[in-house]
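Page 37, continued from 36.
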């Protein structure tokens, strides 16, 4: 059953804090080229010992129309029966992810805001708050871009909601896709919330226009191009890979027991944290280079088809 809209719980406390655990200095050894999924020589025979499946959302689990395949819900029930944890990992906020998975959210770990905020059953597992002065600096940089003629808007991401100053419908329509809990305010840096990330939406090219304009922050913080139109600024210690490695340690799950899917630059670190790393067909070239395997595209149920093959599960495709 497809989850419907509903209320989400904002975590009020955490039992364990994973933030600040550095990733290894050395990247795992990668094959010269990823192994295509349909090349049987690249995958072992029989079901693999997978305990954790982590997938990006946009361009990966979701099709280009931002839809979740109907085939996911019975597959999640079977994964739960087998004791396999399924975890969405996205630049989207926790409230948005929870709404998408509300009816199956029990026990699920949500890696939200590109790893800066991790929640399970309404309990905060980790977060990496961003200093207000940095958030203010990024907001000023966005205003300079606008003054120079760029079509850019800033979203300051807090634990409770996302905050924007720009009020035109074109911008708000993009914000609503990723931040269902958002508020229009006069000053995004003066809100009463704990900030964890600043995202800039560029109606042009985020990689070629907005990201270079944030070079002053790159020396001390992460400036991550998370999509064609989005750039995220976060603490240096925050990314999806750091969140995933913390989850693996907490649950006693190894990289060999972890399957990861991604398509864009904000997925690179979590691909490094799993031996079963898959780039989607059509992914960013650097993602394809870093992944061990290639999966079918997001419009061809690539995540579901890959999970079904590797774990020897039935697959009833709903998209050609």
């Amino acid at each position: 059953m497809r989850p419907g809209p509903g209320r989400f719980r904002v975590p009020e406390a955490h039992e364990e804090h994973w933030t600040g655990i550095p990733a290894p200095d050395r990247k795992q050894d990668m094959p010269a080229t990823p192994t295509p999924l349909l090349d049987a020589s690249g995958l072992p025979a029989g079901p693999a010992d997978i305990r954790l499946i982590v997938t990006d959302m946009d361009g990966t689990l979701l099709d280009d129309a931002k839809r979740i395949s109907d085939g996911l819900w019975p597959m999640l029930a079977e994964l739960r029966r087998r004791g396999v944890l399924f975890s969405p990992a996205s630049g989207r906020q926790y409230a948005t992810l929870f709404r998408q998975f509300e009816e199956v959210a029990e026990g699920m770990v949500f890696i939200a805001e590109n790893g800066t905020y991790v929640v399970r059953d309404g309990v905060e597992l980790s977060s990496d708050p961003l200093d207000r002065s940095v958030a203010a600096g990024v907001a000023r940089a966005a205003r300079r871009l606008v003054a120079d003629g760029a079509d850019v808007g800033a979203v300051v991401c807090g634990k409770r909601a996302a905050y924007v100053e720009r009020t035109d419908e074109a911008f708000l329509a993009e914000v609503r896709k990723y931040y269902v809990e958002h508020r229009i305010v006069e000053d995004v840096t003066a809100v009463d919330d704990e900030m964890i990330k600043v995202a800039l939406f560029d109606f042009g090219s985020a990689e070629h226009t907005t990201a270079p304009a944030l070079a002053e922050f790159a020396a001390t913080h992460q400036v991550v191009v998370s999509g064609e139109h989005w750039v995220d600024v976060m603490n240096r210690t925050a990314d999806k890979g750091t969140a995933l490695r913390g989850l693996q340690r907490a649950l006693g799950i190894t990289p060999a027991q972890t399957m990861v899917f991604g398509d864009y630059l904000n997925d690179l670190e979590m691909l490094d944290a799993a031996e079963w790393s898959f780039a989607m067909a059509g992914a960013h070239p650097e993602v394809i280079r870093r992944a061990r395997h290639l999966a079918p595209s997001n419009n061809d149920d690539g995540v579901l088809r890959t999970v079904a093959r590797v774990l020897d599960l039935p697959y009833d495709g709903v998209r050609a």
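DSSP finds eleven helices and 15 strands in the chain. Flag for discussion at group meeting. The CA atoms of residues 241 and 270 lie 4 Å apart.
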